[in-house]
Amino acid sequence: MPDVRLLPFAFAALLSASLPARAAETITWLMSDFPPVGEQINGQPGNGMTDQVVKYLIARWPEATHRYLYANPNRVWSMLAAGEHACFASALRTPEREKVAYFRNAYLLPPPQLVYRPETQDAIRLNRKGEAELPAVLRNASLRGLVVETRSYGAGIDALLADPANSAHLKRLAPGNYGRSILTMLAMNRADYTIEMDFVMTHARAQDATLTHLKTAPLAGGAGLMVGGIACPRNAWGRNQIRHIDQLLASPEGAAMLSQAQMRWISKETTQRYGAAMKDFFRQLASPQEQEYHR
């Protein structure tokens, strides 16, 4: 006669055997095809800054199923706001974005600069420090500005761009390719100025000699270095993913990878100016960033 004490365990085993196996976690990585931030090669991450970060995470996360979706800023932030099971690998942090996403810091970026055609030098009117006064540039009726819709340039600049008083002579480009064509449009005299990152300009000039004549100037009153990272939706699923991403990155090896992924694209001048702050930032990333998912 079977031991009745074992029957509950036998029933539980039979029940668990009849249940379907739990599906593997599926994560959609929202990617940007915007060198050197991200570079798409045959639908896969290439050699860009965020590509290296995603490859590092995936190599250490075999239990999940990973897929890539190359999307423009509108789609990225719509998906995150809707709580979809997706994470964005190259998210600039802003207060508005923190309302819809959890973040894990990964990048410390130099502030954007003004890029302009040399023929507009007199209209730009740099100050004594060689800086451009962005409000004055935006309101100058003789200048044609061009920026990317929905893309963040940092909280302070975003606020200026959102002010209707500054937008009369500003054109916003659809965000299909993160504005990869804007610099070419400047070179072709289809616009007079835009706002862009130092390392994006360095990469673009190396790829296209026609862009070397474009001039750049720091923006007066700039907010300084900007923090970027990986963003997942602000819900239970996203919180779990950010926690796991933090566990995978929080080590000297992970911090060194993050530093190398970014610093190889940063110009010598920018490194001289911000190198110490960047080194300290990446040193801190070797430790768990638990404050990100405990709030």
Automatic annotation (TrEMBL):
Organism of this sequence: Duganella guangzhouensis
Keywords: Signal
Protein name in the entry: TIGR02285 family protein
Species classification: Bacteria, Pseudomonadati, Pseudomonadota, Betaproteobacteria, Burkholderiales
Signal peptide: 1-23
Entries under NCBIfam families matching the protein: TIGR02285 family protein
